[in-house]
Amino acid sequence: MVTTRAIVLHRGHVLLIRAEDPGRTWYFLPGGLVRHGETLQEACKREVGEETALDVHVRRALYLREFIAERHQRRSVHMPSKHHVLGLLFLCEVAEKDRDTPFEQLGQFTPDKGAKGVKGLEWVPLSRVPGIEIMPPHVGEALSGEFPPPADQGLEFWPED
Q: What pTM was computed for the model?
């Protein structure tokens, strides 16, 4: 199975999806499954549109993440143990038509009844990222360092942890 995730940047902020459990607020990137016949970039753009109502420009792939459910302590109880996912994380920016729009006016969240605890979208200043919980943890670590990484660095592989 292949997924894409989008790291959408705009004016020093990153777009995250906020989730809440009792006593815990955490975040994750918009994205989802690649459909048959769809390119990775098309899937990324589509998923961002479906989850945030934003049109984005996919700039480049940054990270490749492997997820093997049977080895993962944080997997959902509904996820099959034989689930094996490769996830590609892309650097994205808002579409040119929206580049002058303040980040507070970008994005729209429609609750998904099947996504328990997911509460909305939040534009988080990159400077605030080290103080919040982002899943998987690799994302928060990447956004807290030199970001975005130089293009000549190539794709970074995040093995199953």
A: 0.91
